[in-house]
Write a structure and sequence with these properties.
By secondary structure, the protein is mostly helical. It has two domains: 100 residues, Arc Repressor Mutant, subunit A, CATH 1.10.10.10; 40 residues. It has six helices and two strands. The chain is elongated, with a radius of gyration of 20 Å.
Length: 142
Amino acid sequence: MAKKSSTHRKPIDQLGDLQRETIETLWELGQGSVQNVLDALNKGRRKKLAYTTVLTTLQNLQRSGWVKPQKDGRAYIYRPTKSKTQAATSTVRSFIKRAFGGDAKLMFESLLDDENLSPAEIDELRHLIEAKSREKNDESSR
């Protein structure tokens, strides 16, 4: 019987606080050993994290498909398997599915109905939509 793969990736908003902080640190570093990540995480932190805590966190992120280790001498170098933008896109898709039944237009209408949006923010959204529309038209005319 084949072993089932355990690399089911949770959306970033469903990771624990330390897992999320660790993957964000790796995005900033690009890659890093446990020690590199530990040093970055401990900057400005009153209660310092232990090496084994960061190692376990990275191993859990590896099991869930967020990072991939590569042997470098005696150490492992961990790299994110998704960019920050890819993770954000995946999280937004998951949110739209959960909160709006997958209807992005309904989500957008809700955002526009929000009375906290300033005219400048609405104008910026209009420019983003126009730019995306031009991009899609250019793609379809090729």
